[in-house]
Amino acid sequence: MMLTFGDDAAENVRFADEAATALRARIDDHIARAGIAAPPATDDPAEVVAAHLPSPPIRSLDLAGHGISTVIWCTGFDGDFSWLKVPGALTANRQPNHVNGMGAGGLYYPGLDLAVTRKSGTILAAAEEARTMVADILGRLGRA
Question: Of the candidates 5, 2, 126, which has an alpha carbon nearest to the alpha carbon of residue 54?
Fold first, then answer.
C-alpha cells in the first residue's frame, strides 16, 4: 500500500504561524482597548518550534516496504467524544480524562488542543508528544 502526501506542508506551517500571530495581535488589541494591566507577551522557548521538513519533500511512502503496519491519523476540530465508551475515559463534561494527553487505562489522546502546552494540537507538537506517549507505552510493556 502506498501512502501519498501533498507538497504543501511548508505552506500549511506558514499559514498556521500567520494565524497564531494574528490571534495574538487580536488579544493584544483587546487588552489595550479594555485597559487591562497585563504583562507584555513573550515567546516561551519551549513552544517555539522550527519546522523540520524533508528536502526534497516526501511525496509517497511504501508502507509495507518500510515495515509500517499501523498508521494513526488524528486531526479535526470537533470535540465530540460521545463515541468513547470506556469507563473513566471522559470527564463529567464528556471531554478526555487525561494528563498531558495520557488517559486512564492506557488511553492516549494525541493532538488535543492545549493538552501539554499551547502548541499542543498543532502539527509541530506531534513528534514531541508522540515520543512521550511511546515512552509511556514502552514503560507499560516493560521495555523502557
Answer: 5
